[in-house]
Amino acid sequence: MVGEITKDERAPLLPDRQEQADFFVCDIFDASLKADMASMAHPIFSLSTKPDRRIRRYQDAAGKNYVEVRPSVEGLATIHDRDVLIYCISQVIGALNEGRPVARTMRLRAYDLLRATNRMTDGRGYEALRAALRRLQGTQIETNIITGGTEQLDIFSLIDRARIVRETRDGRMQEIEIELSDWVFNAIRAREVLTLHRNYFRLRKPLERRLYELARKHCGRQRQWKIGLGNLQEKCGSASTPREFRRLVTAIVEADARHDHMPDYAIRMDEDCVVFTNRGTMGPRKADQSQDEVPALPASAYEAARAAAPGWDVYQLEQAWRSWMADGGLDAPRNPRKAFVGFCTKWYERRGPP
Questions:
Q1: pTM, to two decimals
Q2: Where is the domain boundary, 168, 202, 236?
């Protein structure tokens, strides 16, 4: 796709227009459809800089469950539009960590959002933000969730509503209200989030951002992650031809070899595969434990797990839970008991009795 192609020799990172705190990103599909989509990590954000009006449909191997992403007349939400969600999620997580009440509807200053996501704060920056809100609200996701033999149809947007509260005389937004969808908000409250490197917002190319997201999710804190080009293209949602996609990835690999600009993970080609190697830059967050420091669960956790997943071996479920967190590169939960019981509840909903 034309919008994915860049041939300039500029520095691979945008200027750091302001200091940023660590940010969090929620993988929406993994958060609520783990049974069907966790290993596939389907893309819902377009990599194109042109309006992308493709309808995307993904199905599991059995063909029973599906996810369909439909654009509005403005096109699919882009990977740069995702910055808005990242900022909102970061605010909610920050409030939860401080013990403050949270809600799906949040009010924020447009200027703060633009600065935090390393965007320009001139008129173009505000207009781009307005367009991003339209695409986020217009992009619809439809999925069927099968639990206990019953199929449930769910149709939702990435954000339910955006409202400009104040606007200056020259048309620039001062305050906006954003109402997150239940799908996103529930995932945040379940702490199904990943920490992003601050240079994520400095990556110029949409494909670079998507590659980093995939490495963060699948490699996590492991030493290395390897994936075939064809599978990688599918996970990226690229509309390029296989030959063009190889060229685009090769250009990123060569730029990373010269500048080491890809955050957290070095990237290289190995014949028809792409290899991501952990740079060792993800130390434990100050307020959180590392994955290896997840404490032992109290006896009450196993009792609650037995009630949530009757018939299952709770120690087997604990091993599956810990492996799932490690494979996804997830930080240790602040409330391990609650996180484990929630995992068991979803496990039983997906699989039923053993």
A1: 0.73
A2: 202
